[in-house]
Amino acid sequence: MIDASTTEELVEALRDVWSTGDPWFALGGGSNLFVGDEPFDGSVVRVLTQGIERMPSPVPGRVRLRVQAGHDWDSLVAYAVGEGLGGIEAMSGIPGTVGAAPVQNIGAYGQEIVQTLAEVELIDESTGDVSTVPAAELGLGFRTSVLKHHYGSVPARRAVILSVTLDLAEVGPGGRRIAGDQLRTALRLAPDDEVTLAWVRERILETRRSKGMVLDPDDPDTYSAGSFFQNAVVSASFARTLPDECPRWPVAPDLDPVLVIPLAAFDGYVPPPSSVESDVKVSAAWLIEHSGLRKGFKLPRSRAALSSKHALALTNRGDATAAELAELARFIQGRVQSEFGLILQPEPVLVNVEL
Questions:
Q1: What is the spatial distance between Cα 322 and Cα 307, in angstroms, rounded to a whole number?
Q2: Which of 124, 154, 247, 292 could form a disulfide with 283 if both were Cys (CB 3.0 to 4.6 A apart)?
Q3: DSSP string for residues in 211-265
Q4: 317 neighbors 308 (Cβ within 8 angstroms)
């Protein structure tokens, strides 16, 4: 285990580890990991860098924050809200570090980091070079990027983030209308209601606490890796095979395409417009519960169980092994597949453990 408290220490540690060719792992807050019972035979570089730098944005009315990779994510959100900077307040209470946030494009209640991410500074394993990479080159999608270790595959780009730069709106301390149906619904707001960033943050934290998604030593439901299964993104046609009651959200707006016909080729005929249905995100929690697995479910003699508050969280009820948690995860996958024809994918990074 190698602790790196500065960018220089982090770069040096990674280059040293990579030069040996041995297995390695970069560790942030550890809140999005599911680690097996056997020891990890390799080097772990723990990212402990801290700091927020405020910079001007090229866009009027916005501010950029450059944040070190080891900085606590929720501390960053609290800072932004305190400074009247909007764009990440709905992601209050998400555990982990800032450097991990772009790796899986974290999000909650309709906000995702892709909406505010300007660039990252990273170091590539293949060359050991440090570079600044625009957000557009990270392949950010629903809980994914070119940097993510997907279950069953390797990342498209093996690199470690050193710092993250966000571009946030200067909202100020006053109230404003909330854009986005998903966030308004979660906050129980009407379209014309005006609320402050601080109000949004506190309500989001209350909501997460009610679901066991904010760590509380006295609440066993919070001993988890967060939402273990991703909300599934499926085609619109597949979504129509699911019960109407299953919550769903379009992944992208279905915009009318723009048709350009060169004047020299125009013969007076304009073909009818065509549109492509957007993919649909469906609730994994709903699928789990409606496959017959209620909150609090556990297998016989197992010390792993679904949270009693949130069907997506697989919790350790006391001395559970990784094997017990993996057994529960596989059972859930099987039930959902049997009931709805869909295989749920794990959200945490799996280290030395298989589903």
A1: 16
A2: 247
A3: TT-S--TT-GGG-EEEE-BPPEEE-HHHHTTS-TTS-EEESS--PPPPP---GGG
A4: no
Q: What's the token pair of residue 64?
A: 């950029």
Active site residues: 143, 227, 347
Check whether 172 has a pLDDT greater than 90.
yes
| Phi then psi dihedrals of residue 230, to 5 deg | -75, 145
CA contacts within 13 A on the Cβ side of 197:
22
Residue located via tokens 């792993």: 304
Q: What is the mean pLDDT of the chain?
A: 93
Tell me what the mean pLDDT of segment 72-99 comes to: 97
pLDDT greater at residue 83 or residue 249: 83
**CA-to-CA distance for 331 and 96, rounded, in angstroms?**
27
Per-residue pLDDT tens digits for 178-227: 988 889 988 999 999 999 999 999 999 999 999 999 989 999 999 998 88
